[in-house]
Amino acid sequence: MRIVALDENSKKDILADLLKRDPNNYTAYSDTVQEIVDTVKRDRDAAVFSYTEQFDHAVIDASTIRVTKEEIEEAMREVEPGLLEVMKRSMKNIRAFHEKQKTYSWFDSKPDGTILGQKITALSSVGVYVPGGKAAYPSSVLMNIIPAEVAGVEKIVMVTPPGRDGKVNPVTLTAAHLAGATEVYKVGGAQAIAALAFGTESIPRVNKIVGPGNIFVALAKKAVYGHVSIDSIAGPSEILVLADESANPRFVAADLLSQAEHDELASAILVTTSMDLAKKVSEEAKQFTKELSRSEIIQKSLDNYGYILVADSMADALETVNEIAPEHLEIVTKNPFEDMTRVKNAGAIFIGEYSSEPLGDYFAGPNHVLPTNGTAKFFSPLNVDDFVKKSSIIYYSKDALEAIHEDIEAFAEAEQLTAHANSVRVRFEK
Amino acid sequence: MRIVALDENSKKDILADLLKRDPNNYTAYSDTVQEIVDTVKRDRDAAVFSYTEQFDHAVIDASTIRVTKEEIEEAMREVEPGLLEVMKRSMKNIRAFHEKQKTYSWFDSKPDGTILGQKITALSSVGVYVPGGKAAYPSSVLMNIIPAEVAGVEKIVMVTPPGRDGKVNPVTLTAAHLAGATEVYKVGGAQAIAALAFGTESIPRVNKIVGPGNIFVALAKKAVYGHVSIDSIAGPSEILVLADESANPRFVAADLLSQAEHDELASAILVTTSMDLAKKVSEEAKQFTKELSRSEIIQKSLDNYGYILVADSMADALETVNEIAPEHLEIVTKNPFEDMTRVKNAGAIFIGEYSSEPLGDYFAGPNHVLPTNGTAKFFSPLNVDDFVKKSSIIYYSKDALEAIHEDIEAFAEAEQLTAHANSVRVRFEK
């Protein structure tokens, strides 16, 4: 990994470089995605089947698109029992953490006869996208479904691309079933997002679509935003380790590589106040890269978006952290909790040398669907609030309205909205 | 207002009709908006000044675009003292309600040496769009700025189109100052949204953009979504009154018209179980329309999207409410609180015959920026949570990680992410 002195110029270059990974910049695919979305909206099931054949090389029809109870039972039997137990223990932690995120309706009444409140209602239905491809990602299934289930969503519709044999990976299916998916459909890509947004003969329309995916999925989610709600638009993964000389270089290097292995656009950055640590981490990373099975991806990712930044001070280092706003932040310093208080922007913050990032991906409980590409400045980890919505509640007694009705009328008249003023006035006309 | 029997067919037609108002369907303007956004991104201030001259017929440059302290002081002097006092009383209620929405960071520690938590951080900066045009909308200024201020946002950047004289309406400026805007710029339309999303020489880039606007503003917000966060995409206003025979037809009619006066795309719908009420409301509405100053707009809005739907039962009526998911819902029935419990989808719910909708627009305290066009199925009123974000906190002690490290490794290996497994494994290698 290249070692770069952190100054205003290098920071500016690196920030610009990282933003090149922004899915919003992939306009080359926008038209293709829009066409897929429009076609699915118009031709519904027929378009879904046709795109699935084209992109996934799988033949699916109305009788096979929905995963059956038998398919789920078969999948459960195929999963290695040890993994099943691991998933169950992980789920327990994920549920427990998300239960703590629940918020409740409240109201505030006053003896003048007013009641104001906020009613929390779970969304009726959500769609969960789960990527397919060569590997199964059961952790992603758990992380997307469990918060919806905890929030009280009644209909949790999972979609995932089928393999060429028209089947869904058994581990994915098992995770979906354990987590609480109410229905599963064999469809992926932009066509799956469009189907969930507009509905087809086979696939129900949902209120919100969540879940990570490739660039087609990300652009499709943006295209249907407004018709339905979406989670944040996921970009490539990233890790930033903030470390001082007290950090273990071997642990730091291993953690950096854990994200670099995701794909060639992933970013792994160490920001440190110690040149000694910088050199050692660079060495360890080189060594690990040789040994690991995904070394080719790791090497490309590190060459593209991997940096070791050496800062003059912890204050400079923290400023850079806040500007990068990383998806995953590890703080491995002498006072990691105190340093955490100065972090404004990060998806998940891993504190101390034993809080390795994959702990959060798989087990601790907080969600691993996190804002990427600097969007931690304004987006949050996927959470229970994403699956509920609020309604304001307003009750005024006659006396309470009478006491202030002239204020409302004056305000409305000032905005030249005379029918607004009239609606209050008529209640007190002689 | 036309009276229609509520059945499956009429409901389907009306729902389809209402969705025609969806800003996502105005694709005719999409290309224009995208061009404005791209041009402002590229040419920055120069583009902003040029579009302001083209669309607002106002000449603005780098020395005049930002509202000065003197301009604010002048504006404060111009506002009618009575209105100033009304705004202050309204602000007090808005602040009090939004203070109750605040959520706090929390953590949960266990004696095995684990700490999990959720850190709440205010966004650093937000942009607030305030429409210009013939009238001033100080209430909109208060409703958009106050929740950001309560959340603790440091930089609250307001933008609003200047008049031909290059000035901002004094009432708008006064409201901005009272509510806590930290800077105000004279720019409107899609060019204002682009400037806030990408920054120009004069206008700072922000993390999130909120505030209502016309179709150009709505489409521009959609175009920049992902680069920054936005509030929900606002469509035309709407009111739905759910009433039985106990309702006062004169009050109901006046309230329906209060939203119909907004614009020709606004929708006013009465859903009632009483044909008698339906007829009386239709009569009253006709009478009011003649008397009100904005009668032309009201008449067009009622002709376009105004309906009185007569339902066979309160259950049918409530089902329709939930399918329409109105921005504003008034419940004027014998048991309005009980009926409220059956409402799943509505932006704000006004309960009882003295809770007239404009009470919420101007005075009660809950936000008047509400989800429109059926998006109350998944969006919420603008609220304090919109101006904060969450970061997950994860701390595991060595012992805590050691106890479960094999679970993480097994899960990672199952996903073929060997560098993930490695990062945990190295911490316990002999």
Measured by residues with Cβ under 8 Å of the partner chain's Cβ, the largest interface is:
A-B, 124 and 124 residues
Number of strands of chain A: 14
At CATH level 2, the architecture of the largest domain in chain A is 3-Layer(aba) Sandwich
Tell me the quaternary state. Answer: homodimer
Kindly report the CATH topology of the largest domain in chain A. Rossmann fold
Count of domains of chain A: 3
**Regions of chain A with pLDDT < 50 over 5+ consecutive residues?**
none
Helical content band of chain A: 40-55%
* Tally of DSSP helical segments of chain A: 17
The CATH class designation of the largest domain in chain A is Alpha Beta
The biggest sheet of chain A, with number of strands, parallel, antiparallel or mixed sense and barrel status, is: 6 strands, parallel
Mean pLDDT of chain A: 94
The side-by-side strand order for the widest beta sheet of chain A comes to 1-11-10-9-12-13
Strand percentage of chain A, roughly? 15-25%
CATH superfamily caption of the largest domain in chain A? Nitrogenase molybdenum iron protein domain
Radius of gyration of chain A, rounded? 25 Å
Overall, the morphology of chain A is globular
Which structural class fits the helix and strand makeup of chain A? alpha/beta
Key phrases:
homodimer; 430 residues; alpha/beta; Rossmann fold; 3 domains; five-stranded parallel sheet; 17 helices; 14 strands; 17% strand
Describe this structure in words.
Chains A, B: Keywords: Amino-acid biosynthesis, Histidine biosynthesis, Metal-binding, NAD, Oxidoreductase, Zinc. Chains A, B: It comes from Hungatella effluvii. Chains A, B: One of its GO terms (biological process) is L-histidine biosynthetic process. Chains A, B: Its cofactor is Zn(2+). The structure is a homodimer of 430-residue chains. In chain A, 46% of the residues lie in helices and 17% in strands. Chain A contains 17 helices and 14 strands. In chain A, α2 (30-43) packs across α9, α10 packs across α11 (275-291) and α16 (398-414) runs antiparallel to α17 (418-425). The longest helix of chain A is centred in the N-terminal third of the chain and has 19 residues, at 81-99. The radius of gyration of chain A is 25 Å and the shape is globular. β13 of chain A pairs parallel with β14 of chain B, so a sheet runs across the interface.
